[in-house]
Design a protein that fits this description.
alpha/beta, seven-stranded mixed β-sheet, 28 strands
Length: 727
């Protein structure tokens, strides 16, 4: 028996914890935490360790599948599947144009540099308009806020956890999520270190989360974040607590922002936030007077009705208190590859360059709101979505009102899915093409170094060969592109990038005749990036060759450098804009939902330690123990509805209804119900309905008026509901 132990890293969430893979005779038998990883140092969560079960899951799709006339799937060869797909695509494009073709990519694609690279290359070269992603259910508002503030959508500040004295955290539960929009292994240790050195961690959330229980909790009402942040700014301006020097040096539009938040006194906002005005004033004073402070908002703040405004105000609060781009504040990492600069120069990753056919929503990094996909399929007219590809995604489960999308998908002329599993979305696909797991491909976390307070990177080779006939997504995308005459990076907005890469390859011995592949492009990008070796001119600079010599990864700096804001802001004059029209107008018109006694409660999402979206419930080690799908309800609200702990209950919104088990807890503010997302899907094709539960997104709306206007975010938090017992 041949046994090998290989270092790699987890690609489920942002900490990217180091793993050691034990491989016997070409098959993965075990994953464990990597003690030699310089940041995670022997720590990994249950999801990462349990990925062995995903890798070896008998429900994985390992061969190309074609749907038959009876609705079943049959195995076909890769050549058959790709040739048939290519033939049907050419006919569709010939009749309806390239605008009839669309793509949806899910969260895991962010953790595969090759998938993302080839997807973007194909999108730009083919001129795809219908592109959607999980970002509109997650983080696109953060990118839009950065575009408005800095003129650079991909410049996202992160909290400087190692140096801060005061961390204000909204809508985040990093003890369970392990950190999001920041790459911080061992985040619990980082947070507790703040309080051990005499600092404070304040968690603003409608639920007393696992993180809030460990620190200070401020129990806000659902979707009240915009009002709280505006009130904090109002107090700071009113009491003269703003950092005038920072404002003069870094910002423009201060007067307009101050005027716009002037009406949001703690007293006037108390009915919406549920917070005592004295508490809000004290929080504003303590934040402004702290030696250093960081403000951080995450998923809970991204899914309300004013998601972009909230993300904007998070950074505005950091700047006004003198904590933006300062040690211990909200700081900017250095990208491995100069994505922001390339995007600005070449114009292919911005905001509002195109607008959706349905609803006229601005694109965010080239994608439109996934909530409108169904309407793009069913609405007649030029540019109607007729052929759809999905990769690493299950939008029927993840978008609001998935029933609408499930009903629309059969109207497509062609539907192709690239995935590990048969899921609720691709059950009606014409073809399912088997993708590799993250252990079956090479990888480097190109986007995540800029999100790490300790700049770090790691390159991993594949640790096992692909099982069955699974292929890397980039190879599948490349093969499909070839069959319709498209060469990624060859035409369109990416052409200058392609020319630059070709020129660079000609200058480097041995690269001129090499076929473009993700590792080749990644190596060229690393070598010419901020940390690069400049093809041997910079000692110890980055290249794939250098990273292969350090399989556990490389720490690039002790901490993020500060004083770099002037290099990040791309607005004229190099100053952060605090007065974009979109934000000032929203502040001046901001009003709460009208009260509806029919739906007196509000529902929020909930992340669980042993769950990840809609694709890890089928894994047996994660299913063991208390794996029920339950709504967390405050006992007072349950008593009004006549519900006891453990009862089945019905949660109803104006848009849908689900049944779940009730779990009573004082952790919820009154008027709030928390229901975990990612449930309600059917299991793999051999295990029907393995996950059980209900899909909380069935309570949500895809009405155009309910899709957040600036970033196209789905409204998944703070939705009005009522609670009834199930007899």
């Amino acid at each position: 028996m041949s046994t090998r132990e290989l270092p790699t890293y987890c690609r489920i969430c942002e900490p990217l914890c180091g793993l050691i893979a034990t491989v016997e005779d070409g098959r993965l038998v075990r994953l464990r935490a990597d003690k030699d990883h310089p940041l995670s140092r022997g720590n990994a969560c249950p999801k990462g360790i349990a990925f062995t079960e995903i890798q070896n899951d008998p429900d994985r799709v390992l061969y190309p599948l074609r749907r038959t006339a009876s609705g079943e799937f049959e195995r076909v060869s890769w050549d058959t599947a790709l040739d048939e797909i290519g033939e049907r695509l050419r006919a569709l494009i010939g009749e309806h144009g390239i605008d009839s073709l669309g793509w949806y990519f899910g969260n895991p694609s962010t953790f595969s540099y090759s998938h993302t690279l080839w997807m973007v290359g194909f999108q730009l070269a083919a001129g795809l308009k219908h592109v959607y992603s999980a970002g509109s259910q997650d983080i696109n508002n953060r990118f839009v806020a950065s575009e408005l503030l800095y003129g650079s959508a991909t410049s996202v500040p992160v909290p400087d956890l190692d140096r801060t004295d005061f961390l204000l955290m909204l809508g985040a539960n990093p003890l369970v999520s392990h950190g999001s929009a920041m790459s911080v292994p061992r985040v619990r240790d980082k947070l507790t270190a703040i309080t051990k050195r005499g600092g404070r961690v304040v968690v603003v959330d409608p639920r007393k989360t696992e993180t809030a229980k460990l620190f200070e909790h401020v129990g806000i009402r659902p979707d009240g974040d915009a009002w709280l942040l505006a009130a904090l700014l109002q107090v700071i301006f009113e009491e003269g607590l703003q950092d005038e020097q920072a404002l003069r040096r870094q910002a423009r539009g201060v007067r307009e922002l101050r005027s716009a938040v002037g009406r949001f006194t703690p007293e006037s906002t108390a009915g919406i936030t549920g917070l005592d005005p004295d508490l809000v004033r004290a929080l504003a004073r303590e934040l402004a007077r702290a030696d250093s402070a960081a403000v951080y908002g995450r998923t809970g703040t991204c899914l309300g009705r004013h998601a972009t405004l909230v993300a904007f105000l998070v950074d505005a609060l950091a700047l006004v208190t003198g904590n933006l781009d300062e040690p211990g504040g909200s700081v900017f990492g250095k990208e491995l590859v100069a994505v922001s600069e390339l995007s600005a120069r070449l114009g292919f990753a911005g905001y509002g360059r195109n607008h959706s056919r349905v609803g006229g929503f601005p694109d965010v990094l080239g994608t439109f709101p996934a909530a409108i996909m169904a309407k793009e399929i069913t609405t007649p007219g030029p540019g109607r979505l007729r052929a759809l590809f999905t990769s690493a995604g299950n939008p029927v489960s993840s978008v609001p009102n998935g029933r609408e999308l499930a009903s629309a998908l059969p109207e497509l002329d062609l539907f192709v899915s690239i995935d590990l599993y048969i899921n609720d979305t691709n059950r009606i696909a014409d073809y399912i093409l088997p993708a590799t797991t993250f252990l079956e491909r090479d990888d480097i976390p190109l986007p995540f170094t800029a999100l790490s307070p300790t700049p770090y990177t790691q390159y991993t080779e594949r640790v096992v060969e692909p099982y069955g006939e699974a292929r890397e997504e980039w190879r599948i995308i490349d093969a499909i592109a070839t069959r319709i005459g498209v060469q990624p990076f060859a035409v369109g907005p990416a052409r200058p990038l392609g020319r630059a890469l070709s020129s660079l390859r000609r200058r480097v011995p041995g690269l001129a005749s090499a076929r473009p592949t993700p590792p080749l492009l990644a190596d060229l990008a690393l070598r010419t990036g901020p940390y690069g070796d400049r093809f041997g001119l910079r000692r110890d600079g980055l290249s794939l060759r250098m990273l292969r010599r350090h399989p556990h990864g490389v720490v690039l700096a002790d901490s993020i450098a500060t004083g770099v804001l002037r290099n990040i802001v791309r607005h004229k004059g190099g100053r952060v804009r605090l007065d974009p029209d979109e934000i000032i107008i929203e502040l001046r018109t901001l009003t709460d939902r009208p009260a509806d006694p029919t739906y007196p409660l509000r529902v929020i999402g909930l992340r669980e330690l042993k769950s990840h979206n809609s694709w890890m419930h089928n894994v047996e080690p994660l299913m063991r123990g208390a794996r029920e799908h339950a709504a967390r309800i405050n006992p007072k609200d349950a008593a009004v509805a006549g519900i006891s702990d453990g009862d089945r209950c019905r949660v109803t919104s104006p848009h849908g209804s689900i049944e779940v088990t009730a779990r009573l807890t004082e952790d919820l503010t009154t008027g709030t119900i928390a229901i975990p997302h990612g449930w309600g899907h059917t299991g793999g094709w051999r295990r029907a309905n393995a996950a059980g539960g209900a899909n909380v997104n069935d309570l949500m709306s895809t009405d155009l008026a309910d899709v957040e206007r600036l970033a196209g975010m789905a409204n998944l938090n703070g939705v009005p509901v009522r609670l009834d017992p199930v007899s």
